Q: What sequence folds into this?
């Protein structure tokens, strides 16, 4: 099978196709490296859009946002593991 089955409702309430979000958890790489890897494999351009978020725009699969989970971001700021 090479294609997804059609959605039971192919359009949202405004008549647009629905958007899909996918979360992939990984560790050990900085956000900038993940953005560069995504751009090299999926096309598009990687850029930092704020202090914690990188974005790959115009990739083969659309926009990709890369950021640390809030728990990991907080742990990183206090020096993992955080003192109790």
A:
């Amino acid at each position: 099978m090479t294609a997804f089955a059609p959605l039971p409702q192919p359009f949202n309430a405004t008549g647009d196709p629905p958007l899909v979000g996918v979360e992939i958890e990984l560790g050990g790489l900085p956000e900038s490296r993940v953005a560069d890897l995504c751009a090299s494999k999926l096309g598009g351009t990687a850029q930092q859009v704020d202090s914690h978020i990188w974005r790959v725009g115009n990739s083969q699969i659309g926009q990709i946002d890369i950021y640390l989970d809030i728990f990991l971001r907080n742990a990183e700021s206090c020096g993992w593991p955080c003192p109790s």
In short: The radius of gyration is 17 Å. The first strand starts at residue 45 and ends at 50. Strands lie at 45-50, 53-59, 62-67.
